[in-house]
Write a structure and sequence with these properties.
The structure is a single chain. By secondary structure, the chain is mainly α. It contains 24 helices and seven strands. It has two domains: 381 residues, no CATH class; 126 residues, Rossmann fold. A hairpin with an 8-residue loop joins strand 1 and strand 2.
Length: 591
């Protein structure tokens, strides 16, 4: 057998308890520190990111009676609303906490418990799973080291900050569970569990498609190499993936089920998952007749290629990627300013180091470990494959670090352990290994270099919605009569979640109609903008200084409403509304 148990059951139980204690302690300590730092905003339920705010709005709507299968945000681009691409899977944990706490403490306290408790629970679970992977790879000493390194795994830790209720943290946990399942002995039960985690991950969001895809490839390669020994697991995985996909098709298929989309749980992703499951089941069934690795490789390659080709032929929208439905104007002027959707090479050099440092080091360590430790290669391969593919994703879209950095921790634990076992220069090697493995170091290093060189601010510019929410203007805006607000994408989600108003544009790619209307409104001359606002029945205009700077609005659109507002020239049809000491400006549209 190429898989061997590494612990007796009793020892394994004790080690799990230790890993859990370490994980919970680290999660509580770090989350408390983060909470204290950001309490001034969190106490008003102003969450770290606009996606978190929109997620809170989605959960509220669900608890208020919106159908489970209806993912539309009706206060975005009213009256029809705009479709969202988020599934309800991530909403379940948030909603469960609210429902549990609300009867005792009321709605406000329940929502606070959810936005603080949900990321804390996921962080503790992710630290625990990191320890389990580290222990599986390196033995007893690997567990606590892997947990500690994950606690330092910036920027992956950003997904677990208090208030971060978007789905990135859940995706980290699901990929960790999938990696652990693939690292386990090749049984049908293990395969079934792996298929379950893979299926859920793809329903939560297609951001993890590269990681799920490479782990399926690892399973296929293990089947190619070991044949009948991997047959049961391959069949179990096929059953788990197909069963999970069919279950969600039966009970969670969104009301908007269009072949035009290739960005989430859609006909394309469901078809691809079911075809993949069918291909894997067929390979497992053919195993007795494929007695050598060469015919198994050929069969796997042919069926894999057929699945990919069939999916792309059936759903040509996938050739254009997840943003293919967007207007070309938005692709050029909106999409490039979504940080996580941009390439690593689009970042400032030192910010790129901060984001990529731990993933690059982990990739190098992965290649080194695979080369030097042939006996552990089968165990290393699932985790190493995820790290390498996440680093490649990061080059195209920095969102790859949200999976890559946390998953790097167990691999880097091996570097620390190797340094500990060194016979010469041991202290220097241990210090170097810890420093190279701590993701937070790269962020601190970039910050300090920028400060000393005077190359720019020591940190990235504060987001507009943070600047414009100073003093909590949302409470004052919420006191205004209910209406529709024309606002830039940077603050729209805060308007939806922190007030009772609706917005026309918002930073979500499926809201193509509303976003184009919003850009036309602000980039048109004031009188033309007034007509657009009237057509959309807008009641208010919200403007944050810095809105549309990415377009060079004062130069490119000198006669626009945005330029007029930026220069303090308010048209007569807009009446300023006082909302306190804040950079944000609110205007009532005169009828």
């Amino acid at each position: 057998m190429y898989f061997q148990p590494i612990e007796a059951p009793t020892a394994a139980s004790r080690d799990r308890a230790r890993d859990l204690i370490v994980a919970v302690a680290l999660a509580l300590i770090l989350s408390t520190g983060w909470l204290i730092t950001d309490w001034a905003r969190l106490r008003h339920l102003l969450l770290p990111d606009h996606d978190d705010m929109m997620r809170l709005a989605q959960v509220r709507d669900w608890l208020a009676g919106q159908a489970t299968n209806d993912w539309t945000q009706y206060r975005m681009a009213p009256p029809l609303g705009a479709p969202m691409h988020w599934s309800r899977v991530n909403d379940v944990g948030i909603a469960a906490i609210i429902l549990l706490v609300r009867p005792v403490l009321g709605t406000s306290a329940a929502e606070m418990a959810a936005v603080l408790g949900y990321p804390l629970l996921l962080f503790a679970l992710a630290l625990f799973l990191s320890a389990r992977i580290g222990r599986r790879l390196w033995g007893a000493q690997g567990g606590p080291i892997a947990a500690l390194l994950m606690a330092f795994a910036y920027p992956g830790t950003l997904a677990f900050l208090p208030g971060r209720i978007d789905h990135h943290a859940l995706q980290v946990v699901l990929i960790q569970l999938l990696v652990l399942a693939v690292m386990a002995a090749p049984t049908w039960r293990g395969g079934l569990g792996a298929g379950l985690w893979a299926g859920i991950s793809l329903v939560v969001g297609l951001e993890t498609l590269p990681q799920v895809g490479v782990l399926i490839a690892v399973l296929a390669l293990l089947w190619v190499a070991h044949g009948v020994m991997e047959r049961a697991r391959l069949l179990g995985f096929a059953g788990g993936l197909a069963g999970t996909t069919l279950l969600f098709l039966a009970f969670l298929r969104p009301t908007l089920w269009s072949a035009a989309y290739c960005d989430a749980f859609t006909p394309a992703s469901a078809t691809g998952a079911l075809l993949t499951a069918g291909a894997l089941a067929l390979l497992a069934a053919m195993t007795p007749w494929l007695r050598h690795s060469t015919p198994r490789l050929a069969a796997g390659g042919l069926l894999g290629g057929a699945v990919l080709a069939a999916t792309l032929i059936a759903y040509p929208s996938c050739w254009r990627g997840p943003y293919g439905v967007m207007d070309p104007f938005l692709v050029k002027w909106f999409l490039p300013f979504i940080d996580e959707a941009n390439s690593l090479f689009d970042q400032r050099p030192l910010r790129a180091i901060a984001f990529s440092g731990v993933c690059v080091v982990a990739s190098l360590v992965t290649l080194w470990m695979l080369w030097r430790d042939a006996g552990r290669r089968v165990l290393l391969l699932p985790l190493g494959a995820v790290i390498l593919v996440s680093t490649l994703v990061m080059l195209a879209q920095v969102r790859g670090v949200y999976i890559g950095a946390p998953l790097a921790a167990p691999m880097l634990a091996g570097l620390v352990i190797t340094a500990r076992n060194a016979t010469r220069g041991r202290v220097a090697k241990i210090v170097g290994a810890w420093l190279a493995s701590a993701g937070i170091l790269y962020a601190t290093l970039g910050d300090q270099i920028e400060r000393r060189l005077g190359a720019g601010p020591g940190v990235a510019p504060v987001k507009q919605q943070v600047l414009c929410s100073a003093g909590n203007p949302w409470a004052l805006i919420d006191r205004q009569p209910k209406g529709v607000v024309m606002a830039g994408t940077s603050i729209a989600a805060y308007l939806i979640a922190a007030t009772h108003h609706a917005t026309i544009g918002a930073g979500y790619h499926r809201n193509d109609r509303g976003n184009m209307a919003m850009y036309r409104f602000f980039l048109s001359p004031p009188e033309r903008a007034r007509a657009i606002g009237r057509a959309w029945r807008a009641d208010y205009v919200a403007f944050c200084p810095g809105d549309f700077d990415e377009l060079g609005v004062t130069r490119a659109y000198p006669a626009s409403l945005a330029t007029a507002l930026a220069r303090g020239r308010v048209p007569a049809w807009l009446r300023p509304v006082p909302i306190g000491d804040t950079a944000l400006r609110l205007y009532r549209i005169r009828r």
